[in-house]
Amino acid sequence: MTGKLIKYEIRSSIRLIGLIWIALLAVSVLLGIVMGIFDRLMQAHGAIAVLGKLLSVIPPLLYTGIFIAMFVITILLVLLRFYRGLLGDEGYLMHTLPVKPWQLITAKGVVAAGVVIVSSIVAVLSIMILVGFDDFSGMMRGIGNMLESLADEPKYILVVIEGVILMVLSALQSVYRIYAAMAIGQLADKYRALASLAAYIAINIALTVLFVAIILIGDATGLDYVLGRWLMGVDFTEKTFTIIQMTMGAMFLVTVVQLAAFHVITERILSLKLNLL
Question: What angle do CA 169, 175, 179 make, to 5 degrees?
């Protein structure tokens, strides 16, 4: 049933944002072509020179507008799909389905995180398209150098894989953090948007205080000194890889703990304290 919920959520979410993704990539290609002929048009005279000036302004403005719109719509999708589907009018229908609250939350969270990741990938691709039109050979050399580095040090392929997994989990954790704040905010009878915003700010402050406390405890107990001494004993050629792995491991642990905590908070509130208006 969770799979069916995810399919429904994908169909509902991708209608608008999918068009924005296609538009951004198309405008990137258009802007790359225009910038390629811009210099020659500017060297001309009369109407052609005027055309060159227009081409130098309109495509960049169009690209910037779509680029910003993509991220605005992505954020609105994350917020509105959850609020309308589980906390608003649609919630009366969704919560009568023969599924558990955690399945509803998971479906919306997975798709929202996917939308965030794809939007980020599309943004990077659009920039790569522009760079490719400007200096395609330079971009290909950079990609080639990166692939050669990975071939020389195959163990760093593991770092790339870990980075991709961490990126996915981080996106999901960020979405669930918003969901937890919105679930807390819906407990209020009035001004739920403000209550949700206040809850989100409070969660971030609490996490910041917690992380600072952990760092201070590590400093007070001498844990950082012990760790530093241990790293000094590691072979120099392995030190960088070891530090990266330790950092990735710590980030993975922190992300997973937060993800689980936010999911439990949201699920418990929707299961026990749902307050639809």
Answer: 135
Indicate whether 113 and 169 sit together in one domain.
Answer: no
Is residue 258 within 8 A of residue 207, CB to CB? The reply is yes
**Scanning the structure block, which residue is given the tokens 């050669």?**
148
The rounded percent of the chain whose pLDDT value lies above 70 is 81
Name the residue range of residue 193's domain.
153-277
Distance CA(49)–CA(40), nearest Å, equals: 9
Q: Find the helix packing angle between 155-185 and 192-221, rounded to 10°.
A: 130
Q: 164 and 268 share a domain?
A: yes
Report residue 200 as tokens: 């989100």
Q: What is the dihedral sign for C-alpha 47, 53, 56, 61?
A: negative
pTM of the model: 0.81
Looking at 138, 165, 186, the residue that finishes a domain is 138
Contact of 97 with 52, CB cutoff 8 Å: no
Q: What is the pLDDT of residues 100-159, one digit of tens each?
A: 888 889 998 999 999 999 999 999 888 888 777 766 666 677 777 777 777 777 777 888
Other Cβ atoms within 10 Å of 267 Cβ, number = 20
**Residues, the chain, total?**
277
Percent of the chain exceeding pLDDT 90 equals 22
pLDDT score of 202 more than 90: yes
Tell me: do 184 and 261 sit in the same domain.
yes
Nearest to 98 by CA among 4, 221, 182: 4
